Amino acid sequence: MDLDALLAHYFGTDEPGTLDDGVRTRGEERLRIDFGVEQEPSRKFALWVLMEGLGIAPLPAEAFEKEPALRAAADRYLDAAWRLERE
Question: Which of 10, 61, 67, 75 has its Cβ near the most Cβ atoms within 10 Å?
Answer without folding.
Answer: 10
